[in-house]
Amino acid sequence: MKREKSVHPKADALYINKLNKIKVLGLIRETGPVSRANIVKVSGLSAPTVTRIVDGLIHDEKLVVEVGMGSSSGGRPPLLIKFNGEQNYVIGIDLGATFTRGALSNLDGKFIKEIRIPTRLESGFNAIMEDLSDLINRLSIGNTRVRKQRIFGVGIAVAGLINKRENLVEYSPDFDWYNVDILIALEKSIEFPVIFDNVTRLMALGELSYGAGQKLQNFICVNVGYGIGAGIIVDGKLLMGADGFAGEFGHITVETDSDIQCSCKKYGCLEALASGRAIALTARSRLARGQSSLLVELCEGDVDKVTAKMVADAARNGDELARNVFYRAMEYIGIGISNLANIFNPELVTIGGGVSLAGDIFFDNIRKSVDKNIMQPTSRKVEILPVAFGENAALMGAFALILHRVLNLDI
Amino acid sequence: MKREKSVHPKADALYINKLNKIKVLGLIRETGPVSRANIVKVSGLSAPTVTRIVDGLIHDEKLVVEVGMGSSSGGRPPLLIKFNGEQNYVIGIDLGATFTRGALSNLDGKFIKEIRIPTRLESGFNAIMEDLSDLINRLSIGNTRVRKQRIFGVGIAVAGLINKRENLVEYSPDFDWYNVDILIALEKSIEFPVIFDNVTRLMALGELSYGAGQKLQNFICVNVGYGIGAGIIVDGKLLMGADGFAGEFGHITVETDSDIQCSCKKYGCLEALASGRAIALTARSRLARGQSSLLVELCEGDVDKVTAKMVADAARNGDELARNVFYRAMEYIGIGISNLANIFNPELVTIGGGVSLAGDIFFDNIRKSVDKNIMQPTSRKVEILPVAFGENAALMGAFALILHRVLNLDI
DNA sequence: AAACTTTCTAAAGTTATGTAATTTATTTGA
DNA sequence: TCAAATAAATTACATAACTTTAGAAAGTTT
Predict the structure, then answer these.
(1) At A339, is the pLDDT very low, low, confident or very high (cuts 50, 70, 90)?
(2) Interface probe, candidates A17, A339, A366, A380, chain B, greatest B C-beta count within 10 A
(3) First to last CA, chain B
(4) Lowest mean pLDDT: which of A170-184, A364-378, B367-381?
(5) Checking phi first, is residue A271 left (phi over 0); if not, alpha (psi -120 to 50) or beta?
(6) Kind and range of the H or E element at B162?
(7) What are the residue ranges in chain B where pLDDT is below 50?
(8) What is the distance in angstroms measured between the alpha-carbon CA of B128 and the sugar C1' of C3?
(9) Which residues of A are less than 8 Å from B234 in CB distance?
(10) In A106, A364, B214, B360, which residue has its Cα 20 to 30 A from B238's Cα atom?
(11) Which residue is nearest to nucleotide D8 (CA to C1')?
(12) Domains plus CATH for chain A?
């Protein structure tokens, strides 16, 4: 099953209209309450065209509403319109190995209802899908103000390799899934359109739709948690790759002759050296060798309970062992990000995921490493910031996934 | 000077016509002599529309010609048309540190005339620009069959960092140029449109337009010569980055604590460890330490004369030192390519540049390293092949640069 | 030679856009 | 206070490109 060579779709009158509709809707969404006259100015479209398109968006799609009059500047006052985010909804799911979080949100990204359930990891795929289906149904009912018809769909963020050609989760180490079909599993019980994608890519998509992407079109969103991944935005579009596997940033090699094996079986992967799991494992093995450290207290004597968070905490308190381990991991991440930056020339790199919650000790060390390893041709500097939405990043991405589908943002 | 957020241009009747024209022209170019009826089938456009568009391409743009009748399949025989590559021309320049090659070619990529001059590297930017202007003028005259009006422009491939926002060569280590303006330097004496870009990116563009790109839309073209770079094709488009610096593959870090410094001042860059220059330097330093090797004969006793080519030749003949040096370099390149593949999920990686001319010893070792370092989720395998046009790759890219402009391929 | 096929073109109808004129609602100024 | 000026939104009409339908052109088949 080869992907078709991407060609522009057949262009006819309807296609023009669709293009212009998308353009107008995008402008309304971005520039908030705005007059038709203003849209005429920035869109380059003629006034009658804008009027007609806006009418359609108000009465047919119901994605736009009038919000009253603006102030006159010496003539007829403008009728302001805005994106009708508040009366249109999406459901987002962050399917994690320990918890599954679901949220009903309006199209402005505002949470209406949120449910969090433990993930029955051991019970297998079918059990998890049943829980998921319950969760979605619970989110979609019980709120009188949310009309079911205005729920556009369900976006699901999954950790793992997503095969976009076949629409399968090809491999998920966290869940130990191989080629599972989420869509088929849910289609009987869910009446909304369901779309899923890799959690890290969705973080990037969320950032694109609700965060940094409002201004930037080339940036990278890195996830440093139990594993490591990257969502890459090129010219305002998510990088997918030929099969949809793009962004496996955790499995780039940053140490040539490393003897540390990754969960992917390779040696010297960034994920094997710098992920939350790697940080914990490295600290544990050092402790097991008998080195003294604050960590012994933090884990209450049970070395196997040491987590990346503990290592970060101990490092922040000046613990020698923890510092060595944590700083080294940040150096590797900095190298990885520098590599991405040299290849992509992005304007910004945002970082999210559990380990990033360590804060300054995390970002400062990464920035130091990036400064050392990036090729800086001139005064250009790549900004490195936390993701806009913290632990909600994946959910925001799931919203954005549906939003994109609704707004037809990717022609 | 910020780049505008990329929005679809205003869509009106003229715009759909342009879109469809591009589509039809593309189909004609790809499917060779073809009937209007056939274009109707694959394009999805109606027959009258195809007739009208083809008429325009024949009589107005003169980019298409009729080439006679096809054979009937039980009805009126088709009138075959094809892309008029033969009567439309481009000039391509490969501006190298030692030689400058220029070629006049038709739009099918067939060379009409070729000139090669030594590059007066020491004489500075202005002298080189004068030589370049002479070269272009010599290419554009003296052929009675080539009408000057049908020469669409000049594409120039330059080694170095190209700032696309300002249209400058921001930095070229080979030429020691900082922020030079090629367009201004040439505009007085050259009457054709001039466009330039990074040599490696152009190799990729050439591959896209005349080589692998006929079938693939996601691939990477790596250049391993004096330096190392990559041109990356994502969904049929060249990756540029926010400022146009994308593809600095040579400066990704592949060895964390390396003490080998790169020309970019960093340590552990791929280019510092595996470029032609690096291979030669490493071999020289080993020889200087007194290790015995075939290389001593090949360089006729003068260690400073050792080149990457000699190292490859000696390695091919079983020389121990040369093998160690060359194989190690290939291992690094394989790691670099694996990193690219993990991030981009391409269908193909092609490799060109001086060092790649070493042939099997080059490709076999790289493939071995890639097999070791790439994350292979399933049976998927990234193909690694030589570039389609060998030492002409950069010229083909320069042609493609103009071709793209002419055909408006990037809306 | 008549009927059938296939290719290409012409005429008429559709759709969405743009231009120009018009309506609407407010501010400005005599 | 009320007409003139100004700005926003709409209506009416012209335009451009597409599609559908119909038909002409140029072969093959029976």
Answers:
(1) very high
(2) A339
(3) 21
(4) B367-381
(5) alpha
(6) strand B161-163
(7) 1-7, 379
(8) 72
(9) 234, 239
(10) B360
(11) A76
(12) 13-83 (1.10.10.10), 87-199+394-407 (3.30.420.40), 212-387 (3.30.420.40)
